[in-house]
Amino acid sequence: MVAAVTVNSLKPLTCAPFFSSLNSFNCPCSLVSIPTIHSRLRPLLAQMAATGEVEPQVIDSHLHVWASPQEAAEKYPYFPGQEPSLTGHVEFLLECMEEAGVDGALIVQPINHKFDHSYVTSVLKKFPSKFVGCCLANPAEDGSGIKHLEDLVLKDGYRAVRFNPYLWPSGEKMTNKIGKALFSKAGELGVPVGFMCMKGLLLHLQEIEELCTEFPSTVVLLDHVAFCKPPKNDEERRGYSELLKLSRFPQVYVKFSALFRVSRNPYPYEDLPHVLPQLVSSYGAHRIMWGSDFPYVVAECGYKEAREAVSYLAKQGHLPSSATEWIMGKTIMQLFDGKWSSVAN
């Protein structure tokens, strides 16, 4: 079992000797058909459960909720042009979580409501032991987003903030005056900053490195494996290598989330078994956390299947059950001071 560590100290984190023995791209990946994978996935997970290998507490580190069309019409309007095409209200999420055996989640403010956090705030207040909120940073040039961030954290109880670089004014970077003020304020408030590098890590790498270097007390979450797919060309290999090297900053964590966005293969993502142990080798399992990217994942493979895929990939990558426990819940529970520790299984 990996020993618990104190996150706030931001000291380099170490992992068991097992992880240091893993070499790059050396984990076996069996080339079997998807139907065969599906047929054997559930029995494998059942066997893991029977032997006590499945973690008792599962926390989803990345998902979204938004108002139903009726709620949007009555109280929580969508941002113009961002009307969702998928069902994403909290009642649907709760049904999916119950079926999948997921105990809690970090809700990331969706672009569908942009900077209007009223719907997510209502969900956090209604289910305080189930959810934690991650708000969306507003990089407006007038600096109003800094006070907005402070209010969301201190008044509404949000515990993290997302930086979407594509919301910055045209030509501006996340390292501009406003970006640094937001990043610094997040560290002051003790809330992690999640980075969404949808157009590629290399595009934003210098900004992330500069912010981490200048503000080492601000914790960083790299959403969706920083959108680094298993590399097939030199540029992708460089991006993947830089992802692993970001582990030199002890404040950086990786979300092993939205696997349908990272993998080139359909569920259960047979090109990823080597990726997970490599991340563990670089970061330690206690700096990696699973996330579903609900509700988008529902149409891709299903919410329950998204949870099961990680246990399957961990098994394929020969990770010990202790590492899987960290990835599936212990990491994020530790990062947020055991916020979900009172949740009943």
UniProtKB/TrEMBL annotation:
Kinase in keyword set: no
InterPro entries from the UniProt entry: ACMSD, Amidohydro-rel, Metal_Hydrolase
Protein name in the entry: Amidohydrolase-related domain-containing protein
Ranges of residues in domain Amidohydrolase-related: 59-336
Record's keyword annotation contains Lyase: yes
GO molecular function: carboxy-lyase activity; hydrolase activity
Assigned keywords, A-Z: Decarboxylase, Lyase
Organism lineage string: Eukaryota, Viridiplantae, Streptophyta, Embryophyta, Tracheophyta
Domain of life of the native organism: Eukaryota
Entry's transmembrane regions: none
Gene expressing this chain: LOC101263344
Protein family (similarity comment): Belongs to the metallo-dependent hydrolases superfamily.
Pfam families: Amidohydro_2 (PF04909)
